[in-house]
Structure formats: structure tokens, C-alpha cells
Amino acid sequence: MIVLGSTSEVAQAFVEKALQEGEKFGKIYLFTSNKETTERFARHIDVKFLQQSEVIEIDLMKEIDYTTFDHVSSNVLFCAVGYLGDGTEEGLYDNRNTERIININYSKLIPVMNYFAQKFESRRSGTIIGLSSVAGDRGRQSNFIYGSAKAAFTAYLSGLRNYLFEKKVHVLTVKPGFMATKMTEGLPLNPKLTATPKQAAACIYKAFKKQKNVAYVLPVWSIIMMIIRNIPEFIFKKLKL
């Protein structure tokens, strides 16, 4: 398995869920910008599951030398790359914050996704799982920079799914709602609408095995976002969402 964003609690929970379910991986490639943290997780799955892994440093804010991971080959790619950034008014007009949100969630990520998608296509097999967000379903004043990047990522995954279908490669788009992770720590989240990483992993694994196209981690979010998407614009623009 290839894991992009392997410091993500959801990514790590998914790896553990897959191993607990008996999935066999010759090697798990853990791509990360935080080598020290990821190496701890690598040791954990080695001890608990006797799972061999390789930690590979990657920084989306720097130029990437793709030749350093030419050797990486797998039948499953799990992308949990994400950066929420500063969603306040100050953050909105901070161009460095804006560029980082867009670069990490979309513009610098897509070439990496394409690099591996081409490998999957040439092999004519595999599954690509991408964590997008309900924030990408409609732009809302509270997080529309982040939401716009996730909307672009959702559109990318949709097009990739369409393109790779005849090549026998499955693409799964995951749309978590509120998640109890480091990224959302301190935010006032409704517990009834918030999933834990373990809950998310279980949902994603089920969707992976059923070869679903799109999966909301908590089903209630599909209803919530359907309602939000269908609010007329002349009303929606006046709302505080």
C-alpha cells in the first residue's frame, strides 16, 4: 500500500484496519513530511502486525524528485493529504496561508497523484482512495478557500475515476464531515456529527471492499450536504455557514 499523508490519524487507522482484516501487503510505503512521527508508526505496525514498511520523505511545498520513488509499487493508494489552514478573516487575506492551503490540498498534490495513477493504469489494476471533504460540496463563508481546494480535488477524483474505469482501476472519493483529529483540535464540533479516526477507517475500508465511488464517513452528512447544495443562491448568500 502507498500512503500519502501518513501522519494523518485517519490514514494510520485505515492501515491498521486493513491489516486487522487480513489484507496482505508486501510493503507499505509511508510518504510523509514528518519523518520522525511516521517512523514511530512504522515501528508500531512492524511490532503489532509484522508488517514491513518504508518511510519516504516528501514535502509538497518543495520541488519533488520523482526518481527517488521510482521503485514504489503497490495495488492500493490511500491519500490523506490535507491542510486546513487559517480560516479566519486574517487568514483569508494572508496570501501565504492561501497558497499553502491550495498547494497542499490540490495544486502540488495532483502531480504526485498522477504519477502513481499512471503506474496503476499501466498495470490495469488497483484502487486509489482520496480523502476529500464535505467542505468541497458548496462554498461557505467559514472555510471557502479550503473548500474550493477540496472541491477541485473532488472533481479531480471524479474525472480520474471516469478515466481509469476502462483501465480496471477503482477510484474512491471519501468525504469526511467533522473529524476528531489534530487538524480540528480546539474547534467547536458537534459530537453527533463528528467521527473518530477508527470510525472513519471502518467506513472507508467497507467502501473500499464494496468498490464504492463516493462515501460519506457518517451517512448523515450526505443528507446535510444535499440540503445545503439545494438551497437557492439568493437565500444561501445571506446565511452564516
TrEMBL record:
<protein>
    <submittedName>
        <fullName>SDR family NAD(P)-dependent oxidoreductase</fullName>
    </submittedName>
</protein>
<keyword id="KW-1133">Transmembrane helix</keyword>
<dbReference type="InterPro" id="IPR036291">
    <property type="entry name" value="NAD(P)-bd_dom_sf"/>
</dbReference>
<feature type="transmembrane region" description="Helical">
    <location>
        <begin position="214"/>
        <end position="231"/>
    </location>
</feature>
<dbReference type="InterPro" id="IPR002347">
    <property type="entry name" value="SDR_fam"/>
</dbReference>
<keyword id="KW-0812">Transmembrane</keyword>
<keyword id="KW-0560">Oxidoreductase</keyword>
<comment type="similarity">
    <text>Belongs to the short-chain dehydrogenases/reductases (SDR) family.</text>
</comment>
<dbReference type="Pfam" id="PF00106">
    <property type="entry name" value="adh_short"/>
</dbReference>
<keyword id="KW-0472">Membrane</keyword>
